[in-house]
Amino acid sequence: MSWHEFLHMGGYGIYVWSAYGVAAVVLIANALWPVFRFRALRREIERGGQR
User: Fold this and answer.
1) Residue 9 DSSP one-character state
2) What whole-number distance in Å separates Cα of residue 6 and Cα of residue 10?
């Protein structure tokens, strides 16, 4: 099996790899979103709760 065949996956490669891509984006967003939200809330608390 060559790399081309592996990446092409019998004609379904675009669907398989796009699904992996979407899943990776969602997992990364789920990991980073709380960090950014925590930093924003901490800044807001340090300013005295004012926006």
Assistant:
1) G
2) 8
**Phi, psi dihedral angles at 50 (to 5 degrees):** -95, 145
Domain boundaries, the chain: 3-46
Q: pLDDT tens-digit profile of 5-48?
A: 988 998 999 999 999 999 999 999 999 999 999 999 999 999 98
pTM of the model: 0.70
End-to-end CA distance of the chain: 58
Using a 10 angstrom Cβ sphere, with 0-12 exposed, 13-18 middle and 19 or more buried, the burial of residue 13 is middle
User: What distance in Å separates the CA atoms of residue 20 and residue 23, rounded to the nearest whole number?
Assistant: 5
